[in-house]
């Protein structure tokens, strides 16, 4: 340990560039960084960071690479060099650039010429290759025009060297064609792509030579991998007018070492769309299939082969699925037209069926995408199918194209039914330990898979509903007779049955569904054990919930189902009650009218029976489940059209919660301390949550219930607010973590939630504004303003936003009052950093957005100092690190600059804030953490610049006493030029000039404007000398001039758009 500490203390010598570099000391520091922990690692890390950032560090790279004994130190040295090449290459003297280039090339040749060294120094060589590619991005083709021919020539001398050169070509292709966006300017990227294409014949000749002649396995592998990267951009003649395809199929496809990369190459070719090469595509298909049948006979059980296969064998199955799906999706119609290829087509489909049975989700998703496109294509070609009307189609022929796929589609139906993924609604699942439990986390992947499988099975059912029904009925029989009984099999079958709701003719659906439910209820009777019954119950509930059309048409069945759900609400097995409540709410939403009508054979609407039995139905449910139940019943009540009957139903519906509420209010009136008891406060919270859910589903008519408890509710809000404030005054802010205080805050939140839910559903703005808003603002706003920051409810802000979004200009008069109470105090909570009070942050800007959208007049009439605060908060928002806040800030700003245009205050707004807004937007454009907002940045800037250009800003933005400019446009251009030069002094005048020119010339074309900004972001990362040839600035200037001319032409076509003084003389007459 002492020697280690001594080493760390000496390490600072590494930063003294007047001394000779101590390589062994550097090796030690690097080892400490990678191999130790604690203070030593921290100090070593700091020293290495400082060394990497030193402007002269690159001058020591050659010494480190030559004398260091540590691979990690060499890698560190290459990282230093990489930074210099990426950012400062253009300012290095020519001889130093040449020196680095020769040194790197020499090192690469030295290592890669010996296959033993290549294996030993793999990571080191890989980094050297990357550095060479970074140099090429600056030097080739302008300064190093012979690079490709040099590389191809050198490759013929040595196979090991040739293999590494293939890797360099692959990296160069990726940099130019795959990763150039945001890394190079558009013009530079275009020139490099053009150079690659024009010099490709030499590269192609080399690849062809290796494939024809080399016996070196690693070289051939590298060549095929490099070819794979080329296939998506090379001129098509190299693929279809040479022997590349036949070489891949006949020479490499059946060689186990090469078959995976070869299949990837063939897949890349199959993805090309070029009708002039249809014959070659057909050959590609038939030749590949012929080889495939020898390599993997159709008699092989692919499911088992995959399960027992090695990694490369499993990859082959995955690559094969990709090839077949890609080819058939792009060119299947070609094969269909060739009768002599039908057998081959059916063999390819048979492979896909076998691969679809493999137990690997990613492979199944690949196949599913194809089955989905095939089934939807066949359906759309002839939607008038067997599901339209059985009477009309008895004599109709199956379309010939569909006939071709009939046998395959039967197998696909069986796979879909046997493998159906779990729908979102199913909450009772079997976990990894084989236990039946409630699912708490939603599995997004499984839900997406279910949606795709469901859609596919619906199309397949439309194509032949009898076949779907036959498979499902047989599989259900096998559940009942026990031959296929298992939880998994029953689940997938029932999920599949639920997924085809609506895809059969109504009469067929009725017959089928009655059989299914009867069999499942019978199964529930004969199976013993709670787990079995829970699984069957969850499946019954899922299926009935999926068939509202059937339930609406069969009242007795609907009533039976709902009563069965009420039974399940007493079943305490994990997840069953949840699912019963969730199914109940789905049925209530889809069949609500039927519950408020007197049905045939009934003496009263079923809703009356439910309300009479509410206590007994919900007695075993948890609070959350009770809330769901209340929401469901609310949907039923909302279907009642008679207001008098509805009012009576609501009174009966809310009787239980109101009884508990009245008891608490009565006690609190006698003794206010009653509201300090935790159980009482929790009960209040639950009652209010029940009201919220009821209000959500009943809608505006819930006003009768809200009116009943409204003033008491606001008094409870005030009282609990005072209790919280007193507790904080007495015990400090830590008291807010105590259960009682948290329960009190829950009640406050639910009060606000109930009011905003009702307002969002209301249809009488006057009633809301006259009777509900004034007492609420009195109770809520002062309390919010007075409270300590941590005790302010974020829901106050979202509730105000809801009011404004719903009531719009009806609430304009209240906006100043709302702003006074919440604006400044909230802004002071959130403008200290980007982390604290995240909910307040989000809701604050949603409120501001609502005001901007609906009450703009109120906003521009607030005092100037308050308006300045509003603008500051918007700027704060779009600079925010939370993406949703930054996006909202940009939306608000855009609304502001659009809305202000037509206001009297517009000119004073521009004079005061225009330049400030432009400067702040430019600052976020150049901040890499805000790249995601570039489209919106471009939209706002383009709008701002077009305002100046169209002379909508009539007052000068500059101080006439200080400087004279012919127009605001000229002033803005001069101003931006100056701030860009100050912020990025390393940019050349021409770069800045062309950037500013483009901001005006492209302001009517947002995509082009955005790409122009992206080009600028690429340039600011790089220091350069006077040489700017690789940026093709003259070419860019010419493009901008063309863009300006085009824009002018469009404007000239609209009389009055262009200022008369800007119209050319010859066009004045």
Gyration radius from CA atoms, angstroms: 37 Å
Q: For this entry, what is the oligomeric state of its chains?
A: single chain
**Helical content band:** over 70%
* Poorly predicted sequence stretches spanning 5 or more consecutive residues: 387-395
Return the structural class.
Answer: mainly alpha
Per-chain topology:
Elements: H1 2-10, H2 23-35, H3 39-53, H4 61-67, H5 71-88, H6 94-112, H7 115-120, H8 122-139, H9 147-155, H10 159-178, H11 186-198, H12 200-213, H13 217-230, H14 237-240, H15 244-252, H16 259-270, H17 278-295, H18 302-308, H19 311-337, H20 342-356, H21 361-381, H22 400-419, E1 428-430, E2 436-438, H23 444-463, H24 465-480, H25 487-499, H26 506-526, H27 530-546, H28 548-553, H29 555-568, H30 576-590, H31 592-596, H32 606-618, H33 623-638, H34 643-653, H35 655-670, H36 678-698, H37 703-731, H38 739-761, H39 765-786, H40 794-807, H41 815-830, H42 838-854, H43 856-860, H44 864-878, H45 883-900, H46 906-925, H47 934-949, H48 968-983, H49 989-1001, H50 1006-1020, H51 1033-1052
Antiparallel strand pairs: 1-2
Helix pairs in contact: 1-2, 2-3, 4-5, 5-8, 6-8, 8-10, 9-10, 10-13, 13-16, 15-16, 15-17, 16-19, 17-19, 19-20, 19-21, 20-21, 20-22, 21-23, 22-23, 22-24, 22-25, 23-24, 24-25, 24-26, 25-27, 26-27, 27-30, 29-30, 30-33, 33-34, 33-36, 35-36, 36-38, 37-38, 37-39, 38-40, 39-41, 40-42, 41-42, 42-45, ...
Organism: Exaiptasia diaphana (Tropical sea anemone)
Protein name: Exportin-1
GO cellular component, one term: cytoplasm
């Amino acid at each position: 340990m002492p020697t280690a500490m001594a080493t760390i203390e000496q390490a600072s010598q590494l930063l003294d560039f007047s001394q000779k570099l101590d390589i062994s000391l550097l090796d030690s520091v690097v080892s400490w960084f990678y191999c130790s922990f604690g203070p030593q690692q921290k100090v070593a890390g700091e020293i290495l960071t400082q060394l990497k950032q030193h402007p002269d560090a690159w001058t020591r790279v050659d010494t480190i690479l030559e004398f260091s004994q540590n691979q990690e130190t060499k890698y560190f040295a290459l990282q230093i060099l990489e930074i210099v090449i990426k950012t400062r290459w253009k300012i290095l003297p020519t001889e130093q650039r040449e020196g680095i280039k020769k040194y790197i090339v020499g090192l690469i040749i030295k290592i890669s010429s010996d296959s033993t060294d290549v294996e030993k120094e793999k990571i080191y060589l890989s980094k050297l290759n990357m550095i060479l590619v970074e140099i090429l991005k600056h030097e080739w083709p302008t300064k190093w025009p012979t690079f490709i021919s040099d590389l191809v020539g050198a490759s013929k001398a040595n196979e090991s060297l040739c293999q590494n050169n293939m890797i360099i070509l692959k990296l160069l292709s990726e940099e130019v064609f795959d990763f150039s966006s945001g890394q190079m300017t558009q013009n530079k990227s275009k020139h490099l792509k053009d150079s690659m294409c024009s010099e490709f014949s030499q590269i192609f000749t080399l690849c062809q030579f290796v494939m024809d002649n080399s016996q070196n396995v690693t070289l051939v592998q590298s060549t095929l991998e490099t070819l794979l990267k080329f296939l998506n951009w090379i001129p098509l003649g190299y693929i279809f007018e040479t022997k590349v395809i036949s070489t891949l199929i006949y020479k490499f496809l059946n060689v186990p070492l090469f078959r995976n990369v070869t299949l990837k190459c063939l897949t890349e070719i199959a993805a090309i769309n070029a009708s002039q090469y249809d014959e070659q595509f057909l050959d590609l298909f038939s030749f590949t299939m012929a080889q495939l049948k020898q390599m993997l006979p159709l008699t092989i059980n692919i499911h088992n082969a995959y399960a027992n296969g090695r990694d490369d064998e499993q990859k082959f199955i995955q690559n094969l699925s990709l090839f077949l799906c890609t080819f058939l999706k792009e060119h299947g119609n070609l094969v269909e037209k060739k009768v002599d290829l039908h057998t081959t087509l059916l063999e390819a489909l048979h492979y896909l069926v076998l691969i679809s049975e493999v137990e690997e989700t990613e492979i199944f998703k690949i196949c599913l995408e194809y089955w989905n496109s095939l089934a939807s294509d066949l359906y759309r070609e002839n939607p008038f199918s067997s599901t339209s009307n059985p009477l009309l189609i008895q004599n109709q022929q199956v379309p010939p194209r569909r006939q071709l796929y009939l046998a395959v589609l039967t197998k696909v139906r069986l796979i879909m039914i046997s493998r159906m993924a779990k729908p979102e609604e199913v909450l009772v699942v079997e976990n990894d330990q084989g236990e039946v439990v409630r699912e708490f986390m939603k599995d997004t992947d499984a839900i997406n898979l279910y949606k795709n499988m469901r859609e596919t099975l619906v199309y397949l059912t439309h194509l032949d509903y009898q076949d779907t029904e036959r498979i499902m009925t047989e599989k259900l029989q096998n559940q009942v007779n026990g031959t296929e009984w298992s939880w998994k099999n029953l689940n997938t079958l029932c999920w599949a049955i639920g997924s085809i709701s609506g895809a059969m003719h109504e009469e067929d659906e009725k017959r089928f569904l009655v059989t299914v439910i009867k069999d499942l209820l019978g199964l529930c009777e004969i199976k013993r054990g709670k787990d079995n019954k829970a699984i069957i119950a969850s499946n019954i509930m899922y299926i009935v919930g999926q068939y509202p059309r059937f339930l609406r048409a069969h009242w007795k069945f609907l009533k039976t189902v709902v009563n069965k759900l009420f039974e399940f609400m007493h079943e305490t097995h994990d997840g069953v009650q949840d699912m019963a409540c969730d199914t109940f709410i789905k049925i209530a939403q889809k069949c609500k009218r039927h519950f408020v009508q007197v049905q045939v054979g009934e003496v009263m609407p079923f809703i009356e029976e439910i309300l009479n039995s509410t206590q007994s139905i919900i007695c075993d449910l948890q609070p959350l489940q009770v809330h769901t139940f209340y929401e469901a019943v609310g949907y039923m009540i909302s279907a009642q059209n008679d207001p008098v009957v509805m009012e009576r139903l609501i009174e009966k519906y809310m009787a239980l919660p109101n009884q508990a509420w009245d008891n608490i209010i009565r006690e609190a009136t006698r003794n206010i301390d009653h509201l300090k008891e935790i159980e009482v406060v929790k009960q209040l919270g639950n009652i209010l949550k029940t009201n919220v859910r009821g209000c959500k589903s009943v809608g505006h008519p819930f006003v009768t219930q809200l009116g009943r408890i409204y003033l008491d509710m606001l008094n409870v809000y005030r009282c609990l607010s005072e209790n919280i404030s007193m507790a904080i005054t007495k015990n400090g802010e830590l008291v807010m973590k105590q259960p009682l205080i948290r329960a009190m805050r829950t009640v406050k939140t639910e009060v606000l939630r109930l009011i905003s839910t009702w307002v969002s559903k209301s249809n009488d703005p006057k009633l809301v504004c006259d009777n509900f808003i004034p007492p609420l603002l009195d109770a809520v706003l002062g309390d919010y303003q007075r409270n300590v920051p941590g005790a302010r409810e974020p829901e106050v802000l979202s509730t105000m936003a809801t009011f404004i979004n719903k009531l719009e200009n009806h609430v304009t008069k209240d906006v100043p009052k709302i702003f006074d109470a919440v604006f400044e105090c909230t802004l002071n909570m959130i403008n200290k950093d980007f982390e604290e009070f995240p909910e307040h942050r989000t809701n604050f800007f949603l409120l501001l957005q609502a005001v901007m959208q609906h009450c703009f007049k109120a906003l521009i009439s607030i005092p100037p100092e308050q308006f300045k605060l509003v603008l500051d908060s918007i700027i704060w928002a779009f600079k925010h690190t939370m993406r949703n806040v930054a996006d909202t800030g940009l939306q608000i700003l855009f609304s502001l600059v659009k809305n202000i245009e037509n206001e009297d205050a517009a000119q004073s707004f521009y004079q005061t804030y225009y330049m400030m807004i432009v400067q702040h937007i430019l600052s976020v454009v150049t901040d890499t953490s805000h790249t995601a907002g570039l489209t919106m940045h471009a939209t706002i800037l383009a709008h701002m610049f077009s305002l100046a250009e169209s002379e909508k800003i009539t007052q000068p933005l500059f101080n006439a006493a200080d400087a004279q400019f012919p127009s605001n446009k000229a002033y803005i251009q001069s101003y931006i030029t100056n701030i860009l030069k100050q912020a990025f002094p390393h940019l050349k005048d021409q770069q800045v000039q062309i950037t500013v020119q483009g901001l005006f010339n492209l302001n009517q074309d947002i995509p082009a404007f955005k790409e122009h900004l992206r080009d600028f972001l690429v340039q600011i990362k790089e220091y350069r000398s006077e040489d700017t040839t690789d940026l093709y600035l003259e070419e860019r200037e010419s493009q901008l001039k063309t863009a300006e001319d085009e824009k002018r032409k469009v404007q000239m076509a609209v009389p009055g758009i262009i200022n008369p003084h800007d119209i050319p003389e010859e066009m004045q007459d």
